[in-house]
């Protein structure tokens, strides 16, 4: 019998104060897509990083086709046939697509790089994954989906036998995700073994043949997908049953107008955007990637000013030139890109959580540390943040960082909340908690503007959905009329522009 493509044997990895992986053993087979599931901080990314040479295990062994391997770097792993597809730019940004695809084996003639041959090789590689990206484009000009396609082409070009994907769809729209799934199916057909880390249930069930669950760094089971239904999977991950993903709505009558946006325009990003947001409602903002949703949110919060248009808060026109102006008007903002806008990664989790709240927690100019700790404890417990209050935020897993951004704005208690992809990268238990929280906030009178690429999330939580396409508002649907299909058609421009 042939050996499995990958065998993890007793793999253990410690970071200061935490055992990220504790004696993990399981096999991954060639020609299969193998999901790795678990709560935030369970050790999923760490496992992928050990396999692809970014981290080294403290104990245990990884075997590739039966042979023990120990990679000192991603380059080592790639040479042995293991590639990782990253969410963030993993390439040299200022080089072209072709340079990046052929790094390490640049074709040369008489001592010079042969640009023509380079371009041809890159084009051929991109062709193998059905992509028609111009090889001369600088990497930095590519969107996330295109960058991933280039990474997959590079992996195929290197003859990778194992490819690790870590939450690859978290920044993709529906169409881009569908394209990625097609490519992953093709990799499987070629006999590649795929390790697939994700929190998104539908895609795990769409793609994966086998599911491994980690909890607190320990292996709690490996099962064929066909033998593990969703409820059992969730129970394995979080150690308890989860009754519902979406809360039963606590209905709140629509109250006074809190926010009005009129003719808001940032040329090249969005044009003439108008809507109102009322107390007690969750207003969904839908659109494809690039439709301008996040840009509108950033402008309302004062991160990038508008060229034209007005914002009114509680019936009065206001000038919001900086985030501090927005906060003074009771606006809170959970941004899409937590690393750039949501968190100071070098700070402790406690400090990040109470940044907007320090005034309230201070007396005579001194922060009341006990009150600060109590506040933080409440939100960390409810969101089940897996870190101490003193942990440096950079050391947290991605999902736990997202929970800190949520905790920060929930603690700040503004009555207008803009949430841009609030559950991105968050595990299923905390996701349900955040959903219930959004619903409760609205029931208690907050006005919530919700941006989410996960349509079920948007549809279940919003009382109305405004649709943006190419920077313009193209329609509005009340909850009763907003089906996934109707929204997708509107987002893609396949329907009349009815309001
Ligand atoms: N470089 C690091 N330094 C210190 N601690 C780390 C580091 N990387 C990970 N950890 C810790 O190891 C544990 C596992 O993290 P890991 O990123 O593997 O989790 P995960 O399952 O991928 O979570 P998520 O779903 O949130 O991405 C966490 O407690 C995390 O804080």
From TrEMBL:
GO CC field: plasma membrane
CDD domains (alphabetical): ABC_Carb_Monos_I (cd03216), ABC_Carb_Monos_II (cd03215)
PROSITE patterns cross-referenced by the UniProt entry: ABC_TRANSPORTER_1, ABC_TRANSPORTER_2
Record membrane topology: Peripheral membrane protein
Alphabetical list of SMART domains matching this protein: AAA (SM00382)
Keyword set, alphabetical order: ATP-binding, Cell membrane, Membrane, Nucleotide-binding, Repeat, Sugar transport, Translocase, Transport
InterPro entries registered for this protein in UniProt: AAA+_ATPase (IPR003593), ABC_carbohydrate_import_ATPase (IPR050107), ABC_transporter-like_ATP-bd (IPR003439), ABC_transporter-like_CS (IPR017871), P-loop_NTPase (IPR027417)
Occurrences of domain ABC transporter (ranges): 6-241, 253-495
Subcellular location: Cell membrane
GO molecular function, one term: ATP hydrolysis activity
Protein name, entry field: ABC transporter related protein
Organism: Gemmatirosa kalamazoonensis
